[in-house]
């Protein structure tokens, strides 16, 4: 009986030591996300729109246009995020009144092997009641030598819907 018990315990230990937890591979694909501080807000309240980047290989510069309904929102300001170590964001930007915020960001210091973080935050003020779709257009991401970031050709950024209530 003791030999049988020892054999069963040994077999159980052997089986348990052979079981490996399945590792989920980390997603290393290039990603850009557009998120809003709220999907609903009141008239006159600010809306913060964040642009986040994941897995950008040797990112040197990023440019895009944020589009929104000019009858519903007005651009207040752009704030550089933590994506770049020493970001270059032009000051005294002229915001267009036709619902377009052009953004150009670049690195002034050393280039990171893989860049992850917030590119910038754009603060809009709600000017009218209604529903709007905010989206990015004319996106460019380049390495220091001028070539596009790996994975750029398959990149898509989902638009966001925001409602302004009375």
In words, what does this structure look like?
- By secondary structure, this protein is mostly beta strands.
- The protein has 1 helix and 10 strands.
- It has a 6-stranded mixed sheet, with no helix packed on it. The protein has a 4-stranded antiparallel sheet with strand order 1-3-8-5, with no helix packed on it.
- The termini are far apart.
Backbone shape: elongated
Task: Tell me the strand percentage band.
Answer: over 45%
The Rg value, from CA coordinates, equals 24 Å
Low-confidence stretches: none
Counting helices, strands and paired strands, the structural category is mainly beta
C-alpha termini separation: 80 Å
Largest sheet, in brief, is: 6 strands, mixed
Q: Give the fraction of residues assigned to helices.
A: 10-25%
Q: Please trace the helix and strand order, writing H or E for each element.
A: HEEEEEEEEEE
Can you list the strand order of the major beta sheet?
A: 2-10-9-4-7-6
Give me a quick take on this structure.
This protein is mainly β and 166 residues long. The protein has one helix spanning 2-18, and strands spanning 31-36, 40-42, 46-57, 59-67, 73-80, 87-88, 100-107, 114-126, 130-143, 160-165.
Keywords:
single chain; 166 residues; mainly beta; 6-stranded mixed beta sheet; 1 helix; 10 strands; 10% helix; elongated
Secondary-structure map with pairings?
Elements (H helix, E strand, L loop, with lengths): L1 H17 L12 E6 L3 E3 L3 E12 L1 E9 L5 E8 L6 E2 L11 E8 L6 E13 L3 E14 L16 E6 L1
Parallel strand pairs: 2-10
Antiparallel strand pairs: 1-3, 3-8, 4-7, 4-9, 5-8, 6-7, 9-10
């Amino acid at each position: 009986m003791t030999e049988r018990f020892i054999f069963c315990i040994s077999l159980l230990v052997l089986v348990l030591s052979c079981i490996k937890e399945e590792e989920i591979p980390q997603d290393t694909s290039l990603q850009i996300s557009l998120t809003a501080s709220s999907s609903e807000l009141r008239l006159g309240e600010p809306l913060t729109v964040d642009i986040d980047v994941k897995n950008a290989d040797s990112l040197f510069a990023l440019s895009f246009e944020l589009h929104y309904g000019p009858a519903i929102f007005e651009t207040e300001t752009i704030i550089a995020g933590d994506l770049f170590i020493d970001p270059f964001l032009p000051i005294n930007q002229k915001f267009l009144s036709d619902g377009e915020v052009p953004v150009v960001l670049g690195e002034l210091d050393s280039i990171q092997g893989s860049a992850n973080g917030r590119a910038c935050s754009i603060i809009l003020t709600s000017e009218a009641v209604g529903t709007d779709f905010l989206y990015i257009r004319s996106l460019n991401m380049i390495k220091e030598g001028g070539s596009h970031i790996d994975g750029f050709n398959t990149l898509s950024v989902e638009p966001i819907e925001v409602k302004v209530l009375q």
